[in-house]
Amino acid sequence: GIPIRTTLDNSTTVQYAGLLHQLTMRARSTVRDIDPQNDLTFLRIRSKKHEIMVAPDNEYLLIVIQNPCE
Amino acid sequence: IGHPEIFPLVFTTQTQEIFKCRVDEDVTKENCFKLIKKEDIIEDLKARAAVSDFHPVKKIVQEYPGEELLIVFDVEQQYGQNFYLVATEEAKENLLKPPEVAEEEEEEEEKEKEADENKEGTLEEFVYKPPVRKPWVSLGSEKEVEEESVKDTASKTKYLISRVRRKFGAPVTFTDKNASSVKDTYIECTSYQDKTFSIKLLEKDVGAQIVPKVRENSTQTKWTYPKNAAIQYFPREFSDEEKKESLSSKKLKEFITSVLLRMEIALQQNEIMNVFVDDWRALAEDESSYGSKSDIYLKEYQSFTDLHYLKDRTISCVCWHPNIYGIIAESATERLSYDERVDLSGKLLLQKSVILFWSFSDPLHPQLMLECPEDIYCFQFSPSDPNIIAGGCFNGQVVLWDISQYEEKLRNAKSSAGVKKTDVNLPSFIQAQQCGTEPPLVRYCAVSSIEYSHRTIITDIHWLPDFFEVNRMGATFENRAEICVQLVTCSPDCSILFWDIRGTKLPVQPLSDKNKEEKIIDVLPDFPDTFKHLDLTWKPLIKINLCKSDTSVDYSPIRISLTEEYYHYKTSDKMQSQNKLVELNKESPYAEISVPSGKILKGLENVSTNFFVGTEDGEIIYSDWKMERDSKKPSQKHAVHDGIVHTVQRSPFFKDIVLSVGPWNFAIWKEGLATGPILQSCCSAVRYTVGQWSLTRPGVFFIGREDGNIDIWDLLEKTHEPSQFQSISISMITCIRPWIASAKQQFLAVSDDSGVLHVLEISWTLSHPSSNEHANVLHYFEREVEYQKYYEQRQEFRAKERIE
């Protein structure tokens, strides 16, 4: 994916955009393989350090990276 | 013999004479035929019967039809004899005639030859005779033909099978029947082994040759060798205009509006609950906190004592070096009561008072000694620069040391446990001193002026944290230097003094001379002149008198605890202080830094200027140092303890929780709660002498006792009695200081009355907090606060009730 607007630095943004786009595509195809009527609405990845939330659309992706609330 | 009509005969000479066929006379080669009458032969036969040569052919002669028989002279004995008889007329004719034909042919041949020679001779015309039909003469061949032809030897049998008339046209069913199933339907000739025809092979000659099977085959392998390949790529990006364009596009707006809700929900969920909690880990930790008590104890790690300097002395204060691992300093004082001091005052002047530095690597010899003008009852390392040490004397003076020269030595104390390194720029007699086993003696840099210091012993000294400073009015300002420059001391002379180690605005001699002096061996300042500007002229910045409102007697503070304190319990702060160290080493900034005027500095509003004071009479006072127009009145006071309060300490975890330890009990206070302590312990049997919070566990603190035991209190476990106590020494505990040396090692320095410094290692259970301990302790305090409030409400209620 090509980033349109970002609050992070450029290299990180580009990296996140590319990688998460592929993952979202894969997740969506998985969901639709199981049930063709279904579609992916939201993707949440929780890791040790952050939580990454992805809201996909036909054309765009909204990616939010959140640090743990402590 | 193919000629049945030829009969060979032998003619004797007599016979030949009789019949006139004498050889070579009558019958010659050319004229070999002789015709003999039949009658003659018969007469001969009668005459000579058996002797006659014609005897064998007697019958033939008799049957001969013609009259004359032909006798042929067989010159070559073609038929076995010299004469032969031709039995038939035909044959006789043939024999007689063909020679004629042959003669004729011979004649023709001669003629042809002649004709050929001439080449003009006319051939005799060959007269064509059409074949004349002749009667077939049987030569015996029809017998052979008969033999060869196939004829039926037996007549064939005919079977006529007819069916009943009614079955005509009906479908026929045929079945098969195996011939062998019914007996006698057939006759067979079974084969049998006829022994007459078997020949046994006894020997066989066979030749064999062995040839190895050789096959040539070849393969080709693909040799792949690794090759370095590099790809360079760059991500696709939009240009700025494109970005703007897509940002303002309608589709993007629609997308955002549709997606917004989902994202908000997710974010809210995250806010509500901490999603990163590892439930398994939390579960495990809870169980470990109820572990066995055997792990909870303090292990003796090392103990330091020195017979030379610590004889008959007690340790009044212990401090860990903030940066260097394993360095601990203690101050030794005389173990004498006031009256005894007065008596021995003359003698005491001769003896040096020292602060000893110990290192883990050398338990027998102190690493460094700081010379003190009087007995030091409390001292502190400067948090920003651990080479600056401030101490409070017995006589009320504040003393400063600078051990920058020895920092290297202290750091390398482990490696050189016997070999002394020589520092640069030290005067010779100090070096001589160092060469011996004596620890180097560092003289103090500065002492405060006697008139302006405290009038009695300084019991507590603290450095102010480095992020704010105080001016003469007590207002706080930001500290631009970011180093600790101010001290606060308290003493039983009812005053609290604030000191500043920087130079005042009074004209001071320029430092350049002082720097040179340091290197020239002169009248000898054998001590660094970092604080030369303060020496003997040092005046406190602020003096606060704690006076009771109703009486003229003032409070005599023993211990003070400020709201803002610098705690060394975070090892990550090491880096910060090291950075500051680097800056300071280049120059001696304390003299050069002048106190900035109040206008330049930014005022810090959120720094609390309150403090807790524990007094000699057992009261806890909560007051503010910010000076206002009216006389200072302490805001709160509580008489909780029955004797001298020797410890007032803030919890390292909760800024508003203070522990105060009196001789018979202790109390935990919450700042801001005016009604009283949150927790007050019952009176103990043994006097308490010191108390200290644990640096890592929020609900744990240590209390030292008069009998040499240490009580370990765990607020989460028991609040009515200590969870653990351990005997450390036989004499009274004078000071406890915990220290985090590393992530896994925590030490507790315990000093006792007999001059021995014990270093104990805190066990894992005691040092490692459980997962929710912080929250639990906080909760506990809050509950207590709630209880207090509730109690107050009930009191009011009851008071109302009583009135009514």
From TrEMBL, chain A:
<keyword id="KW-0243">Dynein</keyword>
<dbReference type="InterPro" id="IPR004942">
    <property type="entry name" value="Roadblock/LAMTOR2_dom"/>
</dbReference>
<protein>
    <submittedName>
        <fullName>DLRB2 protein</fullName>
    </submittedName>
</protein>
<dbReference type="GO" id="GO:0005874">
    <property type="term" value="C:microtubule"/>
</dbReference>
<feature type="domain" description="Roadblock/LAMTOR2">
    <location>
        <begin position="1"/>
        <end position="67"/>
    </location>
</feature>
<keyword id="KW-0963">Cytoplasm</keyword>
<comment type="function">
    <text>Acts as one of several non-catalytic accessory components of the cytoplasmic dynein 1 complex that are thought to be involved in linking dynein to cargos and to adapter proteins that regulate dynein function. Cytoplasmic dynein 1 acts as a motor for the intracellular retrograde motility of vesicles and organelles along microtubules.</text>
</comment>
<keyword id="KW-0206">Cytoskeleton</keyword>
<dbReference type="GO" id="GO:0007018">
    <property type="term" value="P:microtubule-based movement"/>
</dbReference>
<dbReference type="Pfam" id="PF03259">
    <property type="entry name" value="Robl_LC7"/>
</dbReference>
<comment type="similarity">
    <text>Belongs to the GAMAD family.</text>
</comment>
<keyword id="KW-0493">Microtubule</keyword>
<dbReference type="GO" id="GO:0005868">
    <property type="term" value="C:cytoplasmic dynein complex"/>
</dbReference>
<keyword id="KW-0813">Transport</keyword>
<keyword id="KW-0505">Motor protein</keyword>
<dbReference type="InterPro" id="IPR016561">
    <property type="entry name" value="DYNLRB1/2"/>
</dbReference>
From TrEMBL, chain B:
<dbReference type="GO" id="GO:0045503">
    <property type="term" value="F:dynein light chain binding"/>
</dbReference>
<dbReference type="InterPro" id="IPR036322">
    <property type="entry name" value="WD40_repeat_dom_sf"/>
</dbReference>
<dbReference type="GO" id="GO:0036159">
    <property type="term" value="P:inner dynein arm assembly"/>
</dbReference>
<feature type="compositionally biased region" description="Acidic residues">
    <location>
        <begin position="101"/>
        <end position="111"/>
    </location>
</feature>
<protein>
    <submittedName>
        <fullName>WDR63 protein</fullName>
    </submittedName>
</protein>
<keyword id="KW-0677">Repeat</keyword>
<keyword id="KW-0853">WD repeat</keyword>
<dbReference type="GO" id="GO:0036156">
    <property type="term" value="C:inner dynein arm"/>
</dbReference>
<dbReference type="InterPro" id="IPR050687">
    <property type="entry name" value="Dynein_IC"/>
</dbReference>
<dbReference type="GO" id="GO:0060294">
    <property type="term" value="P:cilium movement involved in cell motility"/>
</dbReference>
<dbReference type="InterPro" id="IPR015943">
    <property type="entry name" value="WD40/YVTN_repeat-like_dom_sf"/>
</dbReference>
<dbReference type="GO" id="GO:0045504">
    <property type="term" value="F:dynein heavy chain binding"/>
</dbReference>
<keyword id="KW-0963">Cytoplasm</keyword>
<feature type="region of interest" description="Disordered">
    <location>
        <begin position="95"/>
        <end position="120"/>
    </location>
</feature>
<dbReference type="InterPro" id="IPR001680">
    <property type="entry name" value="WD40_rpt"/>
</dbReference>
